[in-house]
Amino acid sequence: MEYNHWSISEEITTKVWMHGFEINVRVETGYQDVNVISECLGGDCYGLAELSKKITPKVVLDIGGHIGAFGLCAKRYWPDCELIAVEPCKMSAELYRRNLEDNKLKGTVLNKAISYNPDRNKLLYASRTSGGHIVLSEKEAKEYIDTRYRKYEDRMDDIEIITAEELTKDYGVIDLAKWDCEGAEIDAFRKMDKETAAKFRTMVGEYHLWGDGKKILQASPLDEMRFWEDTKRKFPHLLWSWTGTAGGADKYGKFQAWPKAH
């Protein structure tokens, strides 16, 4: 079977005006883009309004940047911050850049994915949400496509990968980081070294506990408990709070982490 690859020229975009910003979105999946904008800018799902009363970050890192809703929100509260975004989808990264430029804002958008496995360098596209694409190995991606697992699309892209160690080497201490990257945050928290972990001062985001080799949500409550115990040991300087799903097998939700000492 041949697998489809995608180019930016294949997508048509338009603009919407929401929450004080002019925002470029895809036409075909615009409702999915708008949902993310509404959740982040309208619903303040990462709690930046409250954080803005307590912190003034110099460096803000947006991992899983999508088309820039978090970055726009960060610039609303901290216009002088250095913004760095990591987004593996080529079109989303391009829209992120346009959305900063069209609103006369500055930032760096890296068209890369967080990954600690060099074989996981393929981006597989989700059909139900423009922010749900997942980074896999080529073998894993082909299996997902062939089995129609969770209705992922028959298209994948080669992507560049980057680690938290490389990001902190280039940008130093990260005063505020947002992590929302379809499970890659789990691998990063587990595998980054402690010296790198110490460079993250405040964090917000969403966590996704998938099973090994499959995007299946963990069934055991112990999996979630062990992850958070390991995370607290990796980031002993941070005070963690998380809100998972209630009941069932789903193990994902929002989190925040604040510095214990100021």
From TrEMBL:
Annotated Methyltransferase FkbM domain residues: 62-211
Species of origin: marine sediment metagenome
Protein's name according to its UniProt entry: Methyltransferase FkbM domain-containing protein
Pfam families linked: Methyltransf_21
